[in-house]
Amino acid sequence: xxxxxxxxxxxxxxxxxxxxxxxxxxxxxxxxxxxxxxxxxxxxxxxxxxxxxxxxxxxxxxxxxxxxxxxxxxxxxxxxxxxxxxxxxxxxxxxxxxxxxxxxxxxxxxxxxxxxxxxxxxxxxxxxxxxxxxxxxxxxxxxxxxxxxxxxxxxxxxxxxxxxxxxxxxxxxxxxxxxxxxxxxxxxxxxxxxxxxxxxxxxxxxxxxxxxxxxxxxxxxxxxxxxxxxxxxxxxxxxxxxxxxxxxxxxxxxxxxxxxxxxxxxxxxxxxxxxxxxxxxxxxxx
Length: 286
Known about the structure:
Layout (H helix, E strand, L loop, with lengths): L6 H18 L1 H26 L4 E2 L9 E2 H35 L2 H5 L5 H7 L7 H22 L5 H27 L1 H4 L3 H11 L14 H11 L3 H12 L7 H29 L8
Antiparallel strand pairs: 1-2
Helix pairs in contact: 2-3, 2-6, 3-6, 3-7, 3-11, 7-9, 7-11, 7-12, 11-12
């Protein structure tokens, strides 16, 4: 391999090898896909029950209409897409990173002529996440169809392109937080609990920002928007498809540019933490 490898070709190799591995154990692949997809349907059923009790959620002021059923399902579809990409591309690698540090097998990654963070982050792809990802796409198509029947609204090419862009920003923010937490294994020896903390933090982003605009929720809103920006990961792309149906507010103009800054800042911070942690790594031979 050359000194500057073609990373896209390397990624395709990871995808192919991971698919071969999953097809070698097809029963396990099918069970994993079915179980993760079943969780999606159970989660969807829970929200259907909620909207049988109310017409909308997140109404924080007279000017804010909140999220109706179809609009919230579009929000939920965005959550599914981001979580599926994170689970499929990065989650198992972050868990494996901790084991590589503990067992000393990280040595083999460090000596390869490729960026270590790229290799650590994408070495193993979980194809079973394609089940929830497909559910997210189908739920989004259904939600947009229902919104179109109710109001005649159809997102334009600009909205779709911006949605895809900010969906990528959401994935990058989630990934940055995950790889930064996984990198602390070098200092702590083993941090499975700290990596689990990533799930607790990202749980706050599963709901619209409007539900936090009451009482003590304001503290959570500002902290998980401007300090640990997980709320913008899902809310910004979902709002880009929903907000054209409702009155514009100042936040609708502030959050999109802030999401870009948060993405760049998160990636830079996680890169710094990763490289800084490698300086403290002691190989298996030391």
